[in-house]
């Protein structure tokens, strides 16, 4: 329990009602979208950057761990306060500050819901491409801190590709602005890029400026049904090598199909091994030509049926089946460990085969879905954490998954971040020198180690 | 707190099937649809947060307390979270069971306990003499035929407490009986024999106390000889249609058809018993939680609106199953008036964004809540019940 005087000091900064200490609040801020949890000592909900700065000065003086949190939809346990301390919830800082049509950039506070920013841009006729599955229940700040991806990354890149400027609060409470609206800027180290994906370990992101682009005229979606998973894998590479220029190529395996069908009851086939979802966009002619090329390639590569959506609603429905997978897995087993390994896209078929082997080896159901086009797969291990023996097997299977990804030339995380769950494997993926350099960066930015301590970097001495 | 229910054995939350919460994988999708979370942005008040609290108590990691109770009463019971949950968590059951446990443990907030006692004592939610239920008929041009109908009544009209006892809502039953009379529907009114349907008790976790009311109301309706009972209140409808069958013995409702005003109006329109004059306005329809999500009635009201010539019907961003609660649900306005009053703003904004000049509802509570919100926020948009719209737009009626 924290010193009551410190709690009073924090209350004097943000107001009585925005410092939460009840056991109920500690429970509610103990988790994210993973199966892990740990209770903080208190939760502070600031209203603005100045308040964040004042809070950090107190935390720095008192050596209180500060764990920043958006909407808690993270999948790497990055916002869970394992060492206790303060959860700094940025959800009240949700103002859209500016949509600059001349420069095609928007600025918002970190706590804005990502879809609200995207909607504001869309209302002006423009397009902010990052589209995490959790776009309606994650914050922009969280997206930046984890460098979140999404299905359209294949063509449009990840969140970090759109971040132009940041306002952050440093560990000692100083406020710093980095980046700007100049498209080209090579002045000094690229601190924007360093902060993107830093998961709250280097600074607290309080304000974000992103660029947006012209909206594609139309989108076209196709759904291809493959009796054989290996055929789907071949089709993916053939589509990417063709002139179809897809904006997304998504895969769902048979377990994913069953789980979603159970939830949505939309008539997905239950006797096939894979469904691919392919989207093209651009002007009408390009999008239509692209989707036709992709559809034909799927047919030639063993698809039993290829449906091309004739209306945007139909396309949306196809996408809904894919976006519902992750959440629907709770219907099968109480817990899931959703990974986001990333491999060269040519290695997707091989990686899928390896995942199947790992599933059989450890006798654990592993659902496979994800962004097959950019090589970012979501093997989800389903289990019941109340069963300690099964949980141990999960640990072993995870290790195998990561090793397999690295073996085929990939890495641990395509879009969720490292958090705590992938920490033990960081050195395997990046090498000892790269980990050591990151440790030094952390030391320089946060010498007292109060910012989201214990995240990303493996504890020294641990494997 | 001195509720006689405290004497009842305390049922522990853990005794309730833990399978209810095990399905929650904490993805967070419910946060995006919860009106309370969208307003407060506080996790403890979100559906996911409430499931976590319920689970923590079930797993002996948290004691129930007044603070715990407060989280569960800060809820509209609107079911949006249950509808959105990809994992199939039955949040409606969890939220109701949590309130039931709290009621049995003597932790129901005083304001809600008073509401329940009033309902039990007076037979209505306002505590007035139940014989005053016909106040809304006083300034009609003529006595409604429903009070002295000859022959076999087609339907008994169950008016509901709010429309019967709150003058601001009188125009809903007034309009509906006028429409019935224009359409030649022979209906019956039961006046002071009507008691509260019991839904507020159910929402407060005391559904079992509604049993006597359910018996009484069914008998009062049976006495009219009508084979169908029609409600303008979606909450009464939901209670009769879905909760009464669980409370009452088998057979007590047999042969009695329970319909909502919107279904009956749609039926009358289809049969050609209602003829409309043109109404060249843009309206949007607001699905109430009890009629829409909980009862699955979406198309009947829209069918009626589409039958009005020159009317343009537009949808708000959240509609049908995903409709956004006006803020009037779950007895929240009794428990936390300030929060409840902040909630309509978002819905009104959606109606404005859709370009609507009118929000048509089929619920007196949505009408009150949205009307009050528009007045407070100075938003120029009119709220009308479907019965009021139909009554005003019948062919031969003078323009309002």
Measured as a percent range, the helix fraction of chain A is 25-40%
**How many alpha or pi helices of chain A?**
16
The description of the largest β-sheet of chain A is: 7 strands, antiparallel
User: What helical percentage do the residues of chain B reach?
Assistant: 40-55%
Q: How much of the residues of chain B is beta strand, in percent?
A: 5-15%
CATH class annotation of the largest domain in chain B: Alpha Beta
CATH architecture of the largest domain in chain A: 2-Layer Sandwich
Which class best fits the helix and strand makeup of chain A?
alpha+beta
Whole-number count of domains of chain B: 3
Number of strands of chain A: 18
Span between termini of chain B: 50 Å
Radius of gyration of chain A: 22 Å
Overall average pLDDT of chain A: 95
Spans where pLDDT lies below 50 across 5 or more residues of chain A: none
* CATH class category of the largest domain in chain A: Alpha Beta
The tally of helices of chain B reads 19
- Kindly report how far apart the N and C termini of chain A lie: 31 Å
Mean pLDDT of chain B: 91
Assess the beta-strand content of chain A as a share of residues.
15-25%
Strand order of the largest sheet of chain A: 15-12-14-13-17-18-16
Principal-axes geometry of chain A comes out as: globular
Report on the structure:
The complex is a heterodimer of chains A (463) and B (400). With 463 residues, chain A is of the alpha+beta class. Chain A has 4 domains: 4-89, Uridine Diphospho-n-acetylenolpyruvylglucosamine Reductase, domain 2, CATH 3.30.43; 96-214, Uridine Diphospho-n-acetylenolpyruvylglucosamine Reductase, domain 3; 218-326, 2-Layer Sandwich (Alpha-Beta Plaits); 333-425, Alpha-Beta Plaits, CATH 3.30.70.2740. Helices cover 36% and strands 20% of the residues of chain A. Chain A has a 7-stranded antiparallel sheet with strand order 15-12-14-13-17-18-16, sandwiched between helices. A 5-stranded antiparallel sheet of chain A has the order 5-6-10-8-9. A 4-stranded mixed sheet of chain A has the order 1-2-4-3. The longest helix of chain A is centred in the C-terminal third of the chain and has 20 residues, at 388-407. Chain B is α/β, with parallel strands linked by helices and 400 residues long. Chain B is 43% helix and 8% strand. Chain B has helices at 19-22, 35-40, 47-58, 66-73, 80-84, 91-104, 110-122, 161-165, 171-183, 199-203, 211-223, 234-247, 261-270, 299-306, 332-335, 337-342, 344-353, 364-377, 386-393, and strands at 155-158, 187-189, 228-231, 257-260, 282-285, 312-314, 358-361, 382-385. Chain B has a 4-stranded parallel sheet. Chain B has a 4-stranded parallel sheet with strand order 6-5-7-8, with helices on both faces. In chain B, helix 9 crosses helix 19 (386-393) and helix 13 packs across helix 14 (299-306). Classes of the chains: A alpha+beta (463), B alpha/beta (400). The interface between A and B is large, with 41 and 32 residues.
């Amino acid at each position: 329990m924290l010193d009551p005087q410190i709690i009073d000091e924090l209350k004097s900064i943000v107001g009585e009602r925005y410092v939460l200490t009840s056991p109920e609040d500690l429970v509610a801020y103990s988790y994210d979208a993973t199966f892990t949890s740990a209770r903080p000592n208190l939760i502070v909900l600031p209203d603005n950057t100045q308040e964040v700065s004042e809070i950090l000065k107190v935390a720095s003086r008192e050596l209180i761990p500060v764990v920043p949190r958006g909407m808690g939809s993270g999948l790497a346990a990055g916002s869970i306060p394992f060492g206790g301390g303060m959860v700094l919830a940025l959800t009240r800082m949700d103002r859209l500050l500016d949509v600059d049509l001349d420069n095609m950039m928007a600025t918002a506070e970190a706590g804005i819901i990502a879809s609200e920013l995207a909607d504001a841009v869309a209302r002006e006729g423009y397009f902010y491409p990052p589209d995490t599955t959790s776009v309606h229940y994650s914050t922009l700040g969280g997206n930046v801190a984890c460098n979140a991806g999404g299905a359209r990354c294949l063509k449009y890149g990840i969140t970090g590709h759109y971040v132009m400027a940041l306002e952050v609060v440093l560990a000692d409470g100083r406020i710093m602005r980095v980046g700007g609206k100049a498209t080209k800027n090579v002045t000094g180290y690229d601190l924007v890029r360093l902060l993107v994906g830093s998961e709250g370990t280097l600074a607290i992101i309080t304000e974000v400026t992103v660029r947006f682009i012209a909206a594609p005229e139309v989108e076209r979606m196709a759904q291809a049904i493959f009796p054989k998973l290996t055929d789907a894998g071949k089709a993916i590479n053939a589509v990417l090598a063709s002139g179809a220029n897809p904006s997304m190529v998504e895969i769902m395996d048979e377990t994913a199909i069953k789980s979603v069908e159970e939830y949505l009851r939309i008539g997905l086939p239950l006797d096939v091994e894979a469904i691919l979802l392919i989207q093209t966009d651009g002007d009408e002619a390009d999008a239509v030509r692209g989707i036709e090329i992709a559809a034909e390639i799927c047919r030639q590569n063993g698809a039993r049926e290829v449906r091309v959506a004739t209306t945007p609603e139909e396309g949306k429905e196809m996408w809904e089946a894919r976006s519902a997978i992750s959440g629907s897995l709770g219907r099968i087993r109480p817990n899931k460990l959703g990974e986001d390994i990333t491999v060269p896209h040519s290695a997707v078929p091989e990686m899928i085969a390896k995942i199947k082997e790992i599933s059989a080896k450890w006798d654990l159901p592993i659902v496979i879905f994800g962004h097959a086009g950019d090589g970012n797969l979501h093997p989800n291990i389903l289990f019941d954490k109340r069963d300690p023996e099964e949980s141990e097997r999960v640990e072993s299977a995870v290790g195998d998954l990561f090793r397999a990804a690295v073996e085929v030339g990939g890495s641990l995380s395509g879009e969720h971040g490292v958090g705590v769950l992938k920490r033990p494997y960081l050195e395997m993926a990046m090498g000892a020198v790269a980990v050591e350099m990151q440790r030094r960066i952390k030391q320089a930015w946060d010498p007292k180690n109060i910012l989201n301590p214990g995240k990303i970097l493996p504890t020294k001495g641990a494997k | 707190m001195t509720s006689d229910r405290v004497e009842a054995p305390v049922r522990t939350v853990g005794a309730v099937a833990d399978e209810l919460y095990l399905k929650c994988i904490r993805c967070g999708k419910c946060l995006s649809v919860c009106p309370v979370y969208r307003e407060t942005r506080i996790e403890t008040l979100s559906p996911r947060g409430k499931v976590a609290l319920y689970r923590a108590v079930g797993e002996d990691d948290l004691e129930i307390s007044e603070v715990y109770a407060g989280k569960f009463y800060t809820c509209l019971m609107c079911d949006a979270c249950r509808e959105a949950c990809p994992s199939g968590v039955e949040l409606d059951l969890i939220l109701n069971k949590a309130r039931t446990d709290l009621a049995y443990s003597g932790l129901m907030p005083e304001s809600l306990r008073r509401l329940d006692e009033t309902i039990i004592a007076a037979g209505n939610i306002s505590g007035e003499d139940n014989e005053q239920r016909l106040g809304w008929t006083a300034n009609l041009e003529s006595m409604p035929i429903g009070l002295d109908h000859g022959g076999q009544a087609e339907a008994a009209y169950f008016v509901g407490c709010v429309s019967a006892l709150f003058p601001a809502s009188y125009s809903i039953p007034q309009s509906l009986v006028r429409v019935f009379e224009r359409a030649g529907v022979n209906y019956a009114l039961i006046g002071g024999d009507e008691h509260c349907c019991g839904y507020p008790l159910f929402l407060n976790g005391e559904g079992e106390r509604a049993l006597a009311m359910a018996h009484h109301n069914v008998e009062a309706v049976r006495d009219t000889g009508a084979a169908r009972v029609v409600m303008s209140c979606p909450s009464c409808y939901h209670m009769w249609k879905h909760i009464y069958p669980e409370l009452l013995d088998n057979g007590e409702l047999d042969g009695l058809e329970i319909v909502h005003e919107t279904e009956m109006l749609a039926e009358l329109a289809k049969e050609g018993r209602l003829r409309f004059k043109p109404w060249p306005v843009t309206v949007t329809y607001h699905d109430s939680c009890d009629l829409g999500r909980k009862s699955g009635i979406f198309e009947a009201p829209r069918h009626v609106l589409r039958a009005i010539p020159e009317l343009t019907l537009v949808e708000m961003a959240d509609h049908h199953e995903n409709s956004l609660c006006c803020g009037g649900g779950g007895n929240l306005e009794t428990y936390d008036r300030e929060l409840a009053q902040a909630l309509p703003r978002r819905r009104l904004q959606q109606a404005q964004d859709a370009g609507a000049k009118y929000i048509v509802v089929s619920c007196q509570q949505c009408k009150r809540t949205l009307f009050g919100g528009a007045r407070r926020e100075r938003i120029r948009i009119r709220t009308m019940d479907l019965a009021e719209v139909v009554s005003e737009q019948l062919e031969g009626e003078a323009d309002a």
